[in-house]
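Retro notes
What went well: the complex prediction finally ran end to end.
Inputs used:
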Amino acid sequence: MRAIEARSLTKVYPGGTKAVDDVSFDVEEGEIFGLLGPNGAGKTTTIKMITTLARPSSGSATVFGVDASRSPEQVRQMLGFVPQTISVDGDLTGYENLLIFAKLFFVERGQRKARISEALEYFGLTERANDLVKHYSGGMMRRLEIAQALVNRPRLLFLDEPSIGLDPYSRMQVIKQIKELNQNFGTTIFVTTHDMNEADELCDRLAIMNLGKIAVSGSPTELKKSMGGDVLTVTVSGGLPDSIPKELGSTISSEEGVVKILTEDGERAIPRITDYLEGKGTLVESVSLSRPTLDDVFMKYAKAGITQETSFREARSARRSIVRHGR
Amino acid sequence: MTSPQHLVSSVLTIAEMEARKLRHDSTELWMRAVQPALWLLIFGEVFNGIRGLAPGGFSYIQFIAPGVLAQSVLFVSIFYGITIVWERDVGLLTKLLSTPSPRIAVVVGKALAAGVRGVFQGVMIFALALIIGVNLRFDPFDVAGVFIVVVLFAMCFASLSMTLASFLKTRDRMMGIGQAITIPLFFGSNAIYPVSLMPAWLQVISAYNPLSYVVDAMRAMLLTGDYSSLPLDIFALVLSTAIFIGAASMVLKRLIE
Ligand SMILES: Nc1ncnc2c1ncn2[C@@H]1O[C@H](COP(=O)(O)OP(=O)(O)OP(=O)(O)O)[C@@H](O)[C@H]1O
Ligand SMILES: [Mg+2]
């Protein structure tokens, strides 16, 4: 049975923003599914509709065959949700956070205590279990949130940018724990992220979303393959021509004198591109050749959404989440 | 649909959550007892000297003790709308609403917690009344009755406040509306002066003011022992509590949309 079937999901916010625009996709039971996309792509809105927190303007979502609009409570019984901003209760202890949410998920009384101490142990929080959560570090709060999933054992777990604000070690830890949750309990995982390395490592399948639509989906390997050929990273000085001829390849990105070009056969393309650019009066400083990474895939499909404006917004939302941590 | 056991257990869990927070930090609880204490100790004592201010041969401080209790419960419970907006701001509300527990459980649980705070206010005011020698009818049934009214009243206004929060959505606006509701309700009621002293237009307002009914019910139990209007008072209170709980459960989701 499919964990999620989304059909023509659409969300128009009261202000008129079409945050999600006719999106359909499936998530198979037991897989780790990644939804990637630039800021404002509509990832969180998509999650909110499936978790019954927002009502779709049109379209439908089913979770393990149960319609989210018709039986929201039944759907929520199968879900865990780790929201984008940290949302543990700072005025309770770590233990109490797990206890209260276990009760709200109707975890059987006989199993609660054992599962909670197991989860605290597993996430390395046992020693701090009786401290108020507002005195935890951001990483500990994140771990506590994921620990809730280990107590409640949802069939489907949503993680909205789980590694945001974590140091590289904590991030690695969290990724490992998510994977183990998936392997040991068969939990289906739906994760959003901006980090392509993370997505590559974690996800069985992923979809790239941009401007409310899914631009492309597939396994990380498929997506990289679908780019075809090689990526040339060319460092230049002097002005660049507006474009390069199609037969030489296509530009993925171009920033501050570094141009990434996708070509079919990189080795042959190096001299031709160098010649072409120098013919146009551009000085080529270096060229390197690599296989396409998920970053390149992301840049190709999400390009249109990344503008100056969204990077301002990113800064703002990062600041907001810091402010929230602080409280 | 949620089974009745699940509903009850969710309600109790939400209330437990609030109670645990109060146990970790009860400063606010004590701070909130200061204001009613001042009303009794200063306002009450000053006007106590004026004979005949209170009807039925009671002293003024006896007369306002139930009024001060009702007022302090009102102030405590109207605060719940601000709390829920704050919980929305820190993401906690999203988390609560993503659990399988029904929405109404969140509302009733929080409202019950308001009731618990109200009972605490009651205990403090009674203790103070005993200390300064205010003569109230401390009959166990009457005191229990007062606490039932306190809990209902707190639940009623906490739910009203959560309903308003779902439309107003920001803490600043909720602060504003909190003031705009509580002050007129307080001064437009029989809490600190008898209806007979009010100008005619205020008497009309007071007759429709829910706070007046609450104060009436409390006075009946704590002072006069005349229970004739009690059934009506309590019926009105139960009805409006049910209405506001229903309303808040329906609109609460607006906060996170
Ligand atoms: N409550 C809301 N009311 C109005 N517009 C909203 C609301 N929430 C989101 N939007 C808009 O909908 C669009 C999609 O937002 P969403 O939060 O789903 O994006 P996202 O992909 O999760 O972005 P990010 O990576 O920054 O978290 C954005 O343009 C955003 O401004
Ligand atoms: Mg988001």
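What we learned: The pocket of magnesium ion (ligand 2) is lined by residues A 43-44, 84, 160 (CB under 6 Å).
What to try next: split runs per interface for comparison.
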